Protein 1
Amino acid sequence: MFINGIKRWKQVAENQAEGYTYYRLCEAYRDKDGKPKRRIIMGHGTLDDFDDDERNELADVLTAMITKGEACINFNAHVREAAIMFYAQYRESERKAKAEERLREEAARRKAEWEREAVMIKLSSFHQKQARTIGAENVCLRTIKNLGIKSFLLKNGFSETQAKIAIMQIIARSIYPGSELRTVRCLQENSALCELLGINPQSVNKDTLYRSANKLWDVHKKMEDYLHNRVCDMFGLEEKIYLFDLTNVYFEGRMEDSALCQYGRSKEKRSDCKIVGLGAVVNTDGLLVRTEIFEGNRQDVSTLEGVIGSFASGTSEDKKKIIVMDAGFSSEKNLKWLRDNGYDYITVERSHGQTYSEHDDIKKTVHDNKQQEIHLQKVAIEGISDRYCLLTAMPRPKRNKACRRNPPKDMRMGFWPYRREYREKVLNNEIKYSKDSVALSRNILESPDCILSILNMMRKTELRT
């Protein structure tokens, strides 16, 4: 089916007419004599708000809904809503019964033609050769097409062949994560990805992937910004909060020629191996905004300005962005840099011993991602302009590891009442301690609901938490 426009005229004044285009959903077919004909399915009006591409997308969606009775996925909300409206009109129209009867007749005719041309084949006579997987490859290829990655690569100095190889590498590493050598083996023996992209599998080797990876690295920051903006536009995401954190990975080799691989504090407790740091900024929807690679011995506190500053120019001017980070980044230098560059922040207080006063009597109870209660209350510290929020959470009891592995029999019988009693004692001590210092819980950084609760409590004042 397709959308066709015809010229019509309407009278706007005496002896004066104005032309306009009227659009209709049509279907091409052949009559009994084999001559091509055209039938009108339904009218759409002027479609003033649709360009040529959107009208073609609308025709594709309506074709799937009318002929197959299924909803076609379309990322354009304008097209999707219009398709639902026109399909509802089609279901209520008199042409629906005629069209469905005609569709049944055509389906029966096609089935009869297929049965006449069908040939009986003995399945045991088939032998499978060069079997290829195509499902995941096709899904990834469709996703990359919707994201417009190929057009981005072509605009940034990639040739047609280089763009295809880069897309092939991105998809292959998503489906078959591993070394370049293993990726080449999967492409040549298991996957139909090369055939889908029109690439000879035998022409791909590890050196091809190495060269492609180096070329992708040259545009990786531009690509991050492009994909971030593209996904936000596709799904209508409005960013207000950014979450920043670091992790690291270890290497079991010596890595003597690498300037990035250094000994440091491994998150996986591999102090015997050299590590590389990875900094990542994500929004509350889990979408990556920026990534950076650091030396393994780089201090966490020295990474914030480089990462956040790399996308500072892309933030909107009408709304302030909020950076959420843990205590490892909240030095005075970093907090001053955030304030000077127009950012608000939520972090954990690094120093202890300050005396504080309650800002008001408003208290709120929220739950973290493990459904544990966290009590929030605004407090103020004399001489500091930042706004503080006191978090009181029930800590977990510290149990002996050996006792946890093999507890005595008498302890097994009364373990749970003992744990409750112990937790109550610890809670009382924590509350008493919190009256003399500002104690902020790290659980707040694990739950977006807790972050939003803090924002709601402090929305009347300038947030500098």
Protein 2
Amino acid sequence: MAQLVQIRAAILPSSMYSQGARANCLLSSSYIACGKMMNCWFVVESVTNLADGAKKLLEFVGTDVVDSFAGFSDMADSYSNDAGKIDGLVTDFSASSEQLLASINGVMDAIGEVSKAATEGATGTNDIAEKTGVVVEKAAEIKEKAEAAHHAADKLQQNVEHFIV
């Protein structure tokens, strides 16, 4: 056990204990007291390290993280502005597309009306051609009857000439 006390005393840094405290620790048979002193030193050292780490962390957050956050905030604002511009472009494109669709529908309606009128014109022309054909047939019939009447009149005149003396 004395060797353990000597080893622990050798581990203790000279900055924490004076030579006298180290000697007392070596000479002391109170292993528990020496262990408590070492535990106190470890606690103080841990708290010091924790404080240094916290200080470094706060410095990092205060400089790098805050600057980065400001950069991210600016970037988010820029993205938001860009999204607003793109939304405006899409809205304008949508309105233009609707106008174009309305124009195309108007042209399609006009083409439909022209097609309807052409169909009606063709139907009317067909009707005229049919009626003209009927007129030609009737004219041919009238011509035949006129020729028959002319022929009958010629015969009648020849017959009448037989009776005239």
Protein 3
Amino acid sequence: MCRENPYFSYVDIVVRRVYHFSERDEIMERDLSKLPAAAFDHPELDPAVGVDYCGSAEDFLFILKTYQESIEGRVAQIEADIEAGDLEALTLVVHSLKSSSRAIGAEAFVATAKALEEAGKQGDLEAVRRDAPALLDEYRKLGDIIKSILDSCP
């Protein structure tokens, strides 16, 4: 039938996609309702992006917990890499941080991490040393936000 009438096949595909998105939106709404209210109190995090990226509210909360638990270790690693002038190692850590931040819906922080990653790739140690403290402050603040969200879970 596809070969006989491609127009109807195309319409069928569009209708199925619209239905699929509609169904996906319903699932997303149900999942978002499983999150604590505190998850929606902070513009630094977009829970809808996080749940969509992680697949479910439960997985999003698990990723938040893992993210929050890794902060001090990553901060120490970034500080050590800057102190040693090891831009290659720093760039890898910040790239990983950028990716995990995207998974939790921390888009503004992703942009900050991307800028530091680019400075590292360019070998600009001066820019890294100048911009890293702001990134680390923002990272710690994000950790505090996540902790408050996790603490509000039943």
Protein 4
Amino acid sequence: MIGTDFNPEGFPGIGPKTALKLIKEYNKLENIEKIRDRLPDIPYQEIRDIFLRPEIPDVDNISFNEIKYDQIINFLCTEKNFSVDRVTGSLDRLKKSITNRNQSLERWFKYSFCKYGMYISYLSIYLLAYTTIIRMSLWNCS
């Protein structure tokens, strides 16, 4: 109602708040009398299908490659005129968060001596606690 690639002008007098209010009140576009006469000109069913039945690619393998910082800077700053300082600042924060994340994961896999004389990883302790909580909630125990 507020304009898309399919209906760039949208409907006059209907912005995001009004559109949400009308959908909540009438449930479907076809039930809104205010716009009913313009609906035949708009492929609203096609738009609806994009959201309700999106095309989902069949992906067997997801791989995460090394981040190409130079290409990101070139694309955003040279081609799209973003501020170099802001982009490099954001990328620096990204680099730092990746480093911190890797260090945190390494800590999970360090071994700890438990009171029963066995070595178990922090990750094992976490998983044991998590599954215990789930079991208790399923059995309504406290």
